[in-house]
Amino acid sequence: MKKIGIIALVLFMQHISAQNNRFVYQVTMKPDAENKNDIKTENAYLDISAEKSLFYSENRFKRDSTMQKVFQSGAGRASINREQMEAFRSNINYSVEKDKSTQKISYKDRIGRDVYVYEEDRPLNWKMSSETTKIGEYKVQKATTDFAGRKWTAWFTTDLPYQDGPYKFGGLPGLIVKVEDDKGEYSFDLMKNYKIAEIPALNQFGNVLKVKRTDYLKQQAKYKTDPMSFMQSSGGGGFPSPPRASGGGNQNPADMRKRVEERVKEEAKRNSNPIELQ
User: Fold this and answer.
1) Which residues 6+ apart lie within 8 Å of 56 measured at CB?
2) Mean pLDDT over residues 170-195, rounded?
3) Which residues does the annotated region (Disordered) include (predicted)?
4) Reported pTM
5) Which of 48, 97, 170, 172 is least crowded, fewest Cβ atoms below 10 Å from its Cβ?
6) Which residues of 143-170 are buried (b: 16+ CB within 10 A; e: fewer)?
7) Could you tell me the residue ranges of all domains in the chain?
8) Number of helices (H), then strands (E), in the chain
9) Cα–Cα distance, 105 to 170 (Å, whole number)
C-alpha cells in the first residue's frame, strides 16, 4: 500500500507539472529617469509548460489577438480600431523564454522593423536568506542578487511545483512570488494563476535576427540615436509604405518619417531608466 501511495504521488506530480499554467504578475515601473513620479503599471503573463516558460505583456497578447482576428476576417489594416490599439500600448515590448531542458534564457525585442533575439549570458547568482514571511496565501523565503546594474530582492515559494519567475528571474528552489529592486523602480508581484490550454505563439512581424547581447545593445543604441539611418540601413531600404488611413489617401512620406523620428526619440526619453542599467 505504501508503494502504491508513492507511485500515485509521483504520477500526480507528473500530471501537475505537465499542465500549462499562467501566472499573472503586476509589473510596476518607473521608466523615465527625469520623472520618477511617472509610475507605469500593467500586467504580464508567465506561462509555464513542461518544456519551457514564456514571459510577455498582457496588453501585447490582447493587441496580437485583436489584429489576428481582423486579418482572419479579411479586413484590412484600415479597419483596425486605433483607439483600441492605443489602449493596448505596453511598456513591456519584449518577451523572455526559458528552455527547461537546456536552462537557456532567450530575450526577444523589436528594434525598428525586425525582432532581435539573444541568449542571456549572465548567470543569476542568488544569496539565500533564512528569512521567511507570507505573501497572500503563500509562505515565501527571501533571496537577493545583483543583476544588470540593480540589486534585487526576491521572495519565492515552494508551495507550488515550479522553479521559475517573471522576466529573466529564476533558478531558485521555488516560484518567485515577488521580486523588486532596492530603489523601488521595478517590481513584479504575483496576482493570480490559472490553467491554460497552451502557450500562445506571439506574432513576430519582420525578420527574426539572432545576435549576441552586446550586438543587440549596439543596435538598440543606433536606433535610438538616429532611427532614420537605422531604418534605411536595415533590410528593405527604409520605411515601409504607409498604410491607407480610413479617410483615404497616403500620408506624406517626409511627414511620416519626421513623426517616426520624433516618436522614437520621445519613447527613448520616456524609457531612459530601463530595467537593465548595465
Assistant:
1) 44, 45, 92, 94, 95, 96, 202
2) 98
3) 227-278
4) 0.83
5) 97
6) bebebeebebebbbbeebebbbbbbbbb
7) 20-121+182-231+258-271
8) 6, 12
9) 10
